[in-house]
Write a structure and sequence with these properties.
Elements: H1 3-6, E1 9-12, E2 15-18, E3 38-42, E4 47-49, H2 52-58, E5 74-78, E6 84-86, H3 87-92, H4 112-115
Antiparallel strand pairs: 1-2, 3-4, 3-5, 5-6
Length: 118
């Protein structure tokens, strides 16, 4: 990531989240409902972004997806409590944080193919 683009972040529970108009719970310009409170760590840059659109706007490289053998990686940040979920936890906890039970956007399932090679 270039220096200019790296500066486009906010600290959420002490973790840098890169994106566009990101708030203190990881909502962004593209997804900002009450339940849009996760950020995803992308394997291509090892950086959290609220969504693939934010990655596209602030990163200087194409998106890479998590592979099937990486489901034990902590790659999901709960914007409500700061817990980092493994991919497996995120995919199996029915759209809620496994630590604080905050609800996540169930509609994100429609975008799993953009983040995970399932």
């Amino acid at each position: 990531m270039s220096n200019a683009r790296r500066q486009n972040y906010i600290s959420v529970h002490g973790i840098k989240v890169y994106g566009v108009e990101v708030d203190h719970q990881t909502r962004c310009k593209h997804y900002h409902s009450n339940v849009d409170i996760i950020a995803i760590r992308f394997p291509c840059c090892d950086a959290y972004h609220p969504c693939y659109e934010c990655h596209k706007e602030v990163a200087d490289h194409p998106v890479a997806r998590w592979s099937k053998d990486q489901t034990d990686e902590k790659a999901i940040l709960c914007g409500a409590c700061g817990h980092q979920l493994t991919i497996h936890e995120y995919l199996t906890h029915k759209s809620a944080c496994s630590a604080c039970n905050a609800n996540f956007n169930a509609g994100c399932r429609a975008h799993y193919h953009l983040y995970f090679d399932l």
